[in-house]
Amino acid sequence: MMKSDISVLNTLQNVSEENALEEKETIIEAIVNSSDDGIISKTLDGMITSWNPAAERMFGYTEKEVIGKHISIIIPPDRMNEENFIIGHIRAGQKIDHFETVRIAKDGTEKNVGLSVSPIKAKNGQVTGISKILRNISFKKEIEVKQAILAAIVDSSDDAIISKTVDGIITSWNQSATNMFGFSEEEVIGKHISIIIPPERFEEETGIIENIRKGNKVDHFETERVTKDGTKKNISVTVSPIKDHKGIIIGASKTARDISSKKEAEKQQELYTERLKELNQHKDEFMVMASHELKTPVTVILANLQILKLLLEGDTHSAFVDKTLKQMLKLSNLIGNLFEVSKIQAGKLILNISTFDANLLVKEVAANMQQTTLTHRILYTSNPGIAVSADHYKIEQVIVNLVSNAIKYMTEPGDINVKIEKTEDNLLFRVSDNGVGIPEKDIENIFQRFYRVSGSASSFAGSGVGLYISSEIIKAHGGKLWAESEIGKGSTFYFSIPCA
Ligand code: ADP
Question: Using a 6 Å cutoff on CB, does residue 406 contact ligand 1?
Fold first, then answer.
């Protein structure tokens, strides 16, 4: 080969080497520019020599703003010594990998970053600068903080919190689980959950696991578990599936609450309720017996007082007999009511059914009740032809009670309207007054035993049992008793019972 040929070849080789180098540099530049990590280079004195777009996004400074500036513009003052430590390593030709620290952006916000720092070496191996790759790890930090919070919650919970695999192998066990079951964390991790399940309840666990595999939660399931020393505990468990990031069920978390004292309290309550029922029954039986026993002497006294009243007619002392008779009548009424209530309570309300004309009954009661008042008019519109099969005496008792209430609770003279009609297969009775009315909040309660609207106890005589007895009588007939009322305007009481 001729000398000139060799020099041409050398020139060609140099050109192609330069081209390759240029191409390589272009590729590296493209990588640096498109990286999501901040890539910075600086001199050994800390002067920034390059700054990629990701660094710009991370810290808010443009390349122009930082080139030639000292790296301390992104280092928090309290971390400046970190930089000396890094430089020290780099001068010694060492690399630093994944160093987690904090840097400051242009707007002052702190950024959690992971640093990888490498020396930049000249061809002769001398360290001439530093390259730094910064990864934003704020998101990772947030997760770590969240995890730490969750761990603290789990640790401080009063409930036992246990996690296990879908095969029942225990993977975590908090302090309360230790307190509740007596096993330490080391003793149970890796063991099967059956360590705390009484053998007769193994089936239950199978059911729970089946539910978990289906992705279902088991809520407040009351069961028994056994402690290290073999004692059984009543607990309420909530079991939820644990899913991985792809949504695949990889285990279950179990929250167990000790409900032994709740169970004990429930047992006690059951005993007390039972005892209370027994005592109540004794009381009801006593009431039936006492009111029944009282009825006989009171009836005899009443009869004798009636005779005495006749004998003393015109006598100056007859006023004493009248007063006694009046009070005895009240007493007799009260005893009669108590007797009725106690019979109802004892389930002994017996009906003597006969078929009768409702119109005749209501007419008669209205006329009789008119005799008891001079201030009120009892207006009844006759409606013949409604036959009912009912207990005549008891239905009369209900009507008397409703009409006498209308008279009692109408403080001003006025009219009381009594009406009956046949609606479908029922007899519908109503009595309306323009009396004091009943507050809305009380209207449902007035049919309860001994319930009186507050205020009426002091203003009106009564014992709060009339409507209770009436409503029980109507119920026993398969009907219902109800009221509509407006305070200050008056009330209407209705009952309906099936016709004959
Ligand atoms: P008592 O009249 O003996 O108190 P009741 O059982 O007959 O007992 O009535 C219960 C309560 O219902 C009464 O205390 C009264 O407050 C209210 N009440 C009943 N009827 C009327 C009515 N017609 N008007 C206003 N309030 C009434």
Answer: yes
